[in-house]
Amino acid sequence: MSGLLSRVDRMPHAVLPLGGGFALLLLALAPWPSPLLHALFDVFPLVFLCAFAMRAPGSFPAYATFLMGLLYDALSGHFLGVTALSWLLADLLLRGRRLFFPGESFGRSWRAFALALFVAGLLQWALFGLLARHPGDLLPFALRLLFGALLFPPMAGLAERLQDGRE
Q1: Verdict on whether the full-model pTM lies above 0.90
Q2: Which domain holds residue 108?
Q3: Under a CB-based contact definition with an 8 Å cutoff, are residues 48 and 20 in contact?
Q4: How far apart (Å, rounded) are the C-alpha atoms in residues 142 and 145?
């Protein structure tokens, strides 16, 4: 009986990363009345995925990040693969960093996330510009960076609590 209860107790830890990522993806794709709100909710899935890649890498595999990016591209009408590639780049940068800096401070993690978000966002902006044959507006890019940096602490805390609950 305790084995069954143990599995039931671990179920939210297994479902939350994928289910939460998918829910935030749908939230980002919803029509928002303001470009500011769109920029805020548009960064939610990436921040969530990166927080889990940094704090609980076993709970959200890299291929799931790529598939979520493809789904985002397909549902939003963007060029297929651009978001997937940029999200995967951020994910892999943050996963690899964990190998070199185990047990690092939260401030260092936050800076690493901001750098990965900047690199991924710049790649996405450049690829969209190349494929559309004109440079995109930098304001949405800047807003995503700002909102992403502000949203990271609560998302990282959630990932940390989930990882602690698994152990």
Answers
A1: no
A2: 2-166
A3: yes
A4: 5
Distance CA 136, CA 125 (A): 7
Structure tokens given for 86: 């940029």
Give the other-Cβ count within 10 Å of 66's Cβ.
Answer: 19
H/E element, 135 = none
Could you give the 3-state DSSP secondary structure of residue 98?
A: helix
Q: What is the rounded distance in angstroms from the CA atom of residue 48 to the CA atom of residue 20?
A: 8
Q: Structural domain tally of the chain? A: 1
- Total residue length of the chain: 167
Tell me whether residue 52 is exposed, middle or buried, using C-beta atoms within 10 angstroms of its C-beta: 0 to 12, 13 to 18, 19 or more. Answer: buried
- As given in the structure block, the two tokens for residue 43 are 């960064």
* Closest by CA position to 28, among listed 17, 16, 43, 18: 43
Residue 117's nearest CA partner among 70, 163, 54, 60 is: 54
What is the mean pLDDT of each successive set of 10 residues along the chain, which is 167 residues long?
Answer: 57 71 89 85 87 77 90 91 92 74 75 88 89 84 88 82 62
Tokens of 156: 């990282």
